[in-house]
């Protein structure tokens, strides 16, 4: 099945649908969390005390995905749907998004561990198109990140991203120094020197250590941040709050909405995997499904370079300091 | 000068004063941030484009501290005041809080680097007493953490802390496994094997690595989080969102309000420095001014132990996995 490109009014309509869906799904997440919260304003207890927090979260995850899929299927029966929960239960690990069918890519609950602990960095993430539309709703913080191709990226529908735009800051001349570097420890914690844990740690250390330390690789970033959610990391990079996000192991639903928002805000996203020639390799757009991502925040021009030049310079500096991570797709 | 203990009505009055002061100071932080934000709802540009973000932040830091100190001095002329900005400019590095004089301990802007980047994890932090009162206002997230001795700890004055209390979760039986571990990379990034950077990394790795990895020290925590603000880390530990916070290098204004809130919520705070006998050493309350802290979230009882027993068990497990950090007070 091949479909015609969407008209702009059609895109407007789908965008409005996605934004409302994100808000409604975010409210479901919040309502389920409320059941474990006491004090004034708490709802009635919806779960038996015997249910563990993990059971509750799994059920919420499934319920919210079903809610989103049902709404989408009813409104757009011709569209395809890729969701974290249904994918996990399916037998294939293939990359299921193609150019021929308009596809929704949904994570009903990003930051699952945060949600279990009621740490506010959890969200619902909805992407549509290739992705042309991105919606991330962070209900506990009342933050809604939205973007649609050609329509800008927004926080809470009123503040354009990146947030600092008086003016939009250029990349620091000595980046990654003076940058906030966002990264996650991940779930692969094998205690083996060639495992992802040690490859990540080596990379983090190069980024954090004093300038010229670590055999010249020390970058002395201004700060290292780990929020426990790739989706939130990307949203804050689009916002301009993080300068650099580097990660391996993400699935497409973790990043599809965030990529749409980041790119519409003017950010750059490419591969986390350092090429053989980091100083000269062409900087290609990230391939959704590749599981390896490096994002740079939106950047304004400086006296000596364009915003894009500053971003590309930063990509090359990061590539020289990070190691290749070992995340492949399981056999399709 | 020795003062009489405060009566309960006096404490109520001071608490109400501190809460309002925290809200007002938080609004000042937000207003100053708005000047760099564009889009609908932005205020007029208050700074010349030539001012760097860092200059703006330093000015904001000083202005907000002056605002807080002036209000306190006018209301309570007999009270002492210790603030981050005034301390930094003073010549002494001595610990200035004593039991004889009611003392306010204030950080006008916690999470300075976050503020510079408009990452929402910044706050104003106000503690009073020893500290009996703690107020942390996070204006960008509309989060206000407050506590007063005997009056409970609260989020936004309506939700009692810890947040999850249906029931309050016990510590996991295999803690630190299944815990969220909060820690920061800090500013000391010297590339020397015995420096704080490597001591921290060793400790982080022990906490993160697979169970029984790292020579038996691997704890496979559920997640590692770094927010870039000790004050925010403590607030989220009091909330129950983080299970464990371990840090060195904090000053008293970074933690005074957070400690008051954490303790009133039922959390435990002791020293980050592992004793010679981690399995049997007495677990003493943290000493404000010690610069080394280990906090455990509020915990409910399990079938086999009290909440306090679960917290103490967790402290001992952490002590066995972390290294001593080298943060002393500069010569007083």
UniProtKB/TrEMBL annotation, chains A, B:
It comes from the Eukaryota. Mg(2+) binds at residues 84, 107, 109, 254. The keyword RNA-binding does not apply. It catalyses: a myo-inositol phosphate + H2O = myo-inositol + phosphate. SUPFAM superfamilies: Carbohydrate phosphatase. Its EC number is 3.1.3.25. PROSITE patterns: IMP_2. One of its GO terms (molecular function) is metal ion binding. Pathway: Polyol metabolism; myo-inositol biosynthesis; myo-inositol from D-glucose 6-phosphate: step 2/2. Keywords: Hydrolase, Magnesium, Metal-binding, Quinate metabolism. Its cofactor is Mg(2+). Signal peptide: none annotated. InterPro entries: IMPase, Inositol_monophosphatase-like, Inositol_monophosphatase_CS. GO terms for biological process: inositol metabolic process; phosphatidylinositol phosphate biosynthetic process; signal transduction. The keyword Cytoplasm does not apply. Belongs to the inositol monophosphatase superfamily. This is Inositol-1-monophosphatase. It comes from Achaetomium macrosporum.
């Amino acid at each position: 099945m091949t479909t015609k490109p969407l008209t702009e009014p059609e895109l407007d309509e789908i965008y409005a649908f996605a934004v409302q869906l994100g808000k409604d799904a975010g409210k479901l997440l919040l309502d389920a969390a409320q059941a474990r919260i006491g004090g004034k304003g708490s709802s009635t207890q919806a779960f038996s005390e015997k249910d563990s927090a993990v059971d509750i979260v799994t059920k919420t995850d499934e319920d919210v995905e079903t809610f989103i899929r049902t709404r989408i299927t009813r409104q757009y029966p011709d569209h395809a749907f890729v969701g974290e929960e249904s994918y996990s239960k399916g037998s294939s690990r293939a990359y299921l998004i193609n150019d021929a069918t308009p596809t929704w890519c949904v994570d009903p609950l990003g930051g699952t561990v945060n949600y279990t602990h009621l740490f506010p960095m959890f969200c619902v993430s909805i992407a549509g198109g290739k992705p042309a539309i991105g919606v991330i709703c962070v209900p506990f913080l009342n933050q809604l990140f939205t973007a649609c191709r050609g329509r800008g990226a927004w926080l809470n529908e009123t503040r354009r991203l990146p947030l600092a735009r008086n003016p939009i800051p250029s990349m620091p001349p000595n980046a990654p120094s003076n940058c906030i570097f966002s990264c996650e420890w991940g779930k692969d914690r094998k205690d083996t020197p060639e495992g992802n844990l040690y490859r990540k740690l080596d990379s983090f250390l190069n980024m954090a250590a004093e300038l010229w330390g670590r055999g010249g690789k020390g970058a002395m970033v201004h700060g290292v941040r780990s929020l426990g959610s790739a989706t939130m990391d990307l949203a804050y990079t689009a916002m301009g709050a993080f300068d650099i996000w580097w990660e391996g192991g993400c699935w497409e639903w973790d990043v599809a909405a965030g990529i749409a928002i980041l790119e519409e805000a003017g950010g750059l996203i490419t591969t986390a995997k350092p090429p053989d020639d980091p100083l000269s390799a062409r900087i290609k757009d990230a391939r959704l499904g590749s599981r390896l991502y490096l994002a740079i925040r939106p950047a304004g021009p400086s006296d000596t370079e364009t915003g894009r030049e500053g971003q590309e310079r930063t990509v090359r500096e990061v590539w020289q300091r990070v190691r290749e991570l070992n995340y492949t797709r399981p056999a399709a």
